[in-house]
Design a protein that fits this description.
single chain, 404 residues, alpha/beta, Alpha-Beta Plaits, 3 domains, 4-stranded antiparallel sheet, 16 helices, 15 strands, elongated
């Protein structure tokens, strides 16, 4: 009678070990039902689920594996598996899978305990845990660290909305980011990424900088804050702020443009997206003048932003229609996806303000980046702990995959 056995092998990793073990199994005519291997700090954990035939060669295979393990200085453990348990395991393979991604400056046991406890609470089983971030020196400054742990989980969440709410609450409490997304074909096949500009690609709100130069900084920044938090209609507030800039000398734009700083991780993100074959775009309620500068610096494919009207070298306080507001951003995302022959599930949208929510909602991956509470709660995913290059982790990208 055939046997089903789980073989676990642990010990110091060495070249040729897998070949040696599977060589013994091959001599016994064994079928491999499942296999997995992980190496942590040169220590191997190797598991093989096998079907051993009822033959002369099969009868000695476990003994031969034990001897081979001793020869290779490995610990070997055998666990019999009933056919009933095996069939139940096979039946579970159709269950949905999700990816839980933990983003943090420094990974701690408390963070992992929190994530794993919540997944268990909502009926999800962890299949795999992988570190996507690179190895960090022990003396890395607290604000320079970068850690990412990816959990592959199986099952249907008992209450998806409550699960997301609990992840968000714990993330705020522990100062980490926790993303939860379905592990679908589209997650690994996205090809278009669109971005807000102000406070997303750059660290400033340009209209506030222009207002400072015009001597109306306080008035404009107060309106901007309320608009980005979703307290004011973007289009109306934009026109109100722009009117306060009337008479500003256009020469000021050069000095402001030169002073703008890219957000942490922006250059890395765009370099990798370009290498991976993505098309990229700026969809901004800011101004084309500055968006074009970013386009040249980062190699961005498309730019859609607002055009300042200038007469006799002075800003008129009016923008040339159409204004890029919340709905226009969402419409542009659809248009670009259609132009590139893509489904919306193959798109990524990143932004920080309430006027970004419509495009974040329809994108395959919508990310609220260093956003206000309302935006974080409404978006599918949020990143506040790391830089923009943290978006790569949500795609399953490993630091060692990078070319920079």
């Amino acid at each position: 009678m055939r046997e089903i056995v789980l073989i676990n092998i642990t010990g110091v990793d060495r070249p040729g070990l897998t070949a040696a073990i599977t060589g013994v199994l091959a001599q016994g005519g064994v079928n491999i039902l499942d296999i997995g291997q992980a190496v942590i700090h040169d220590t191997l954990s190797f598991g093989i689920l096998v079907e051993i035939p009822d033959t002369e060669q099969g009868k000695s295979v476990l003994k031969d594996i034990l001897f081979k393990g001793y020869e290779l200085d490995q610990q070997v453990r055998f666990t019999p598996v009933s056919e009933e348990d095996y069939q139940q395991w096979v039946g579970n393979q159709g269950k949905k899978r999700h990816i839980v991604t933990l983003l943090t400056r420094k990974v701690t046991a408390g963070q992992l305990q929190a994530v794993s406890s919540i997944t268990a609470k909502y009926g999800l089983n962890i299949d795999h845990i992988d570190r996507l971030s690179g190895r960090m020196p022990l003396d890395t400054p607290a604000d320079k660290g970068k850690g990412c742990i990816e959990f592959s989980v199986r099952g249907e969440a008992a209450d998806p909305q409550a699960l997301r709410a609990e992840f968000l609450s714990v993330a705020q409490e522990l100062n980490v980011d926790i993303a939860f997304q379905e592990d679908s074909l589209f997650r690994r096949n996205r090809r278009l990424a669109v971005f807000d500009m102000d406070s997303t690609l750059i660290e400033a709100e340009v209209i506030d900088e222009l207002a400072k130069a015009a001597g109306v900084g306080y008035k404009v920044s107060e309106i901007t804050e309320r608009a980005m938090a979703g307290e004011l209609d973007f289009r109306a507030s934009f026109k109100e702020r722009l009117a306060l800039l009337k008479g500003l000398d256009v020469g000021v734009l050069d000095s402001i443009g030169a002073s703008l700083r890219l957000t942490e991780g922006a250059e890395t993100l765009f370099a990798e997206l370009k290498r991976l074959g993505y098309k990229t775009a700026i969809l901004s309620g800011g101004f084309t003048y500055f968006a074009k500068q970013l386009q040249a610096k980062l190699g961005i494919d498309y730019v859609f932003a607002n055009e300042l009207e200038v007469v006799d070298g002075k800003v008129t306080g009016v923008a040339i229609e159409p204004i890029v507001d919340a709905q226009r951003k969402a419409d542009l995302l659809k248009e670009l996806a259609h132009k590139e022959g893509l489904r919306l599930e193959q798109t990524i949208a990143v932004g920080d303000g309430a006027n970004d929510l419509p495009m974040l909602a329809i994108a395959g991956l919508g990310v609220a980046f260093r956003a206000k509470p309302l935006v974080k709660q409404s978006a599918k995913q949020a990143i506040s702990t790391l830089g923009l290059d943290g978006v790569l982790y949500l795609l399953g990208f490993r630091d060692r995959d990078g070319q920079l």
